[in-house]
Amino acid sequence: MDKVNIKRLAEELKLSTSTISRALQDSYQIGAETKQRVLELAKKLNYQPNAHASSLGSRRSKTIAVVIPEVFDSYFALAINGIEAVAQARGYHVLIYLTHERLQLEQEILHAFQSGRVDGVVMSVSAETTSTAHIQALRAQGVPVVFFDRAADDIDTARVTTNDAESTYQGTCHLLERQCTTLVLLSISRHLSISRQRIEGYRRALAEHGISQRDDVIDCGQDPEANCELVKNTLEARPGIDGIISTVEMLTESAYQACAALHLRIPHDVKVVSFYNARSAAILNPSLTTISQPAFEMGKTAATLLLKALRNPKSTLVAENVVLPSVLTIRNSTTFVG
Amino acid sequence: MDKVNIKRLAEELKLSTSTISRALQDSYQIGAETKQRVLELAKKLNYQPNAHASSLGSRRSKTIAVVIPEVFDSYFALAINGIEAVAQARGYHVLIYLTHERLQLEQEILHAFQSGRVDGVVMSVSAETTSTAHIQALRAQGVPVVFFDRAADDIDTARVTTNDAESTYQGTCHLLERQCTTLVLLSISRHLSISRQRIEGYRRALAEHGISQRDDVIDCGQDPEANCELVKNTLEARPGIDGIISTVEMLTESAYQACAALHLRIPHDVKVVSFYNARSAAILNPSLTTISQPAFEMGKTAATLLLKALRNPKSTLVAENVVLPSVLTIRNSTTFVG
DNA sequence: TATATCTGCGCAAACGCTTGCGTAATCTGG
DNA sequence: CCAGATTACGCAAGCGTTTGCGCAGATATA
């Protein structure tokens, strides 16, 4: 039982390997009948073209990389679904890499992509990513990069984001309309463009309502317990706070638990709105008013843009900026009570 | 500016390509000083070995595949983290494929692995997977497969599971101890070994408490709304039900919402325990008594077993069965009230 | 009928790396 | 001082595809 490769097929059919190769690629250079015969034998012998030989020969790997900070957050889980869906549909493979929010890891990972392992990259930068030389270097090697959600401002490429500023603006307005007077915003790394955007929307809403506050952005980290402490301390230090807007799904837990620890009732004493994508929002205690990003669609769109660029050998990735709106869903955590 | 490949290095250093190759692999055949020189030049020229050429030459891709049903569930999100962690640490790459619970897709995906694209597979079978010929076929080609969570019973390979029967047994006992008299279990595909295990643990607990019930397993599907209806109908049809044990994270929502729709109070009228891994369990309404699987560790362990097997060229994957226990965390959804 | 255009296929050189084997040169012990 | 072991490296044949180019024979154009 010999290995079944293209040579084997060629011998059995008395054809050359190049004809087999082209037949399998459905090349116009090969006659219909020959193609037919090749396909039949290939199926019969259960021929599977060697992926690495193809990639080496053609200098294209039919593989894309997804580089993200984590998959704890349901946002990224959903986004992966979207990316995988379009990749699978177009015969692409998806490599996944986690940076754990660390710039150094992100650099190492991208650097390794210069090996030709992937044709393109879909990524969301880490919270530490200030310098972007590693991304530029990769692009300089001809590997297209598409951002989704967390983009690097100074890189001129396609990006898929949500209307961060606008969404936060709406969420903040919502809180203010529900009689909140003193707000606080929970954020992560301020390096991130999305964090800045969200803060901006927040500030704009406050300004339009004639409210001026200071020190009202709490910078949280990765550890839920520590974040909870942070929120608790803030709420204790400034008893007037009656509204929390959380810019990350993970921080909802900290907000809820901090309130619980201080015997602050949601929404009675404090109202909460959060960026949140998990379905559990509806069954939280109380159910959570959410800003939910179209995570699946964002992943899908980002992958689509990348694959479209990969189709052209010239790799013309237009620096377009696709914005998919988030939706505000009002639930009990901001429902006015008394 | 020529392409920098192994040949280029060889020319610059007046060495042969084989020496370069071996030096980069830190082979014992190469002298320390030579290695040093090679590494220095490689770094200086920013040399990155071509991944596909390496794979082709060595017949090893340093890549593993993760094949799972979905990533909606936080279980799989966490498991991916675990898998990626050990893969990254050992210089392996992770390809991800979603079967969307469909057998046919699973078959196609595994079939494609015969192309040598991956060295091994870590997988959790789809809900439809009854026949396992496609998995056997892959193993016959010398590609090791490790199961995690959802395993195929009839395949003799390494698997990492949790103590499904025991956990459900404990969860059920917990409900019964809290005065529940009539239980119902929410399940998905009964083909799955884990479903059967969980049902078995449930039945055993009932039996030990001298309770015999029938038609007390509700087979749910993928659609949350439909599942909610299903649960609602069941609760309506049999008003005596005062305990629900859900074997899947996703079904918690359906259970909670069905109860809400029928104005059944949790835990007063109905007590609920569920397999659940997300941190949101603590802030649900009411907070949820959970059986949480060590998802991260399971992924980590599965990947470790696979990579260990890949180290030996003889690929000796012992058919061991690693069981990592889940933990029952009691919260308000089962806390006795009146 | 001679010339140009297709059609369908084969030749052979990449693609960039790995690895079995061979072989000088150096080292070891008796 | 010499046989055998050891060290450090080179040769060259793969690994399995892809693809530019060439070339017959068939068909179309003038």
Automatic annotation (TrEMBL), chains A, B:
This is LacI family transcriptional regulator. It comes from Hymenobacter coccineus. PROSITE patterns: HTH_LACI_2. GO terms for molecular function: DNA-binding transcription factor activity; transcription cis-regulatory region binding. InterPro entries: HTH_LacI (IPR000843), Lambda_DNA-bd_dom_sf (IPR010982), Peripla_BP/Lac1_sug-bd_dom (IPR001761), Peripla_BP_I (IPR028082). Residues 4-58 form the HTH lacI-type domain. The keyword Transcription regulation applies. Keywords: DNA-binding, Transcription, Transcription regulation. It comes from the Bacteria. The keyword Transcription applies. Pfam families: LacI (PF00356), Peripla_BP_1 (PF00532).
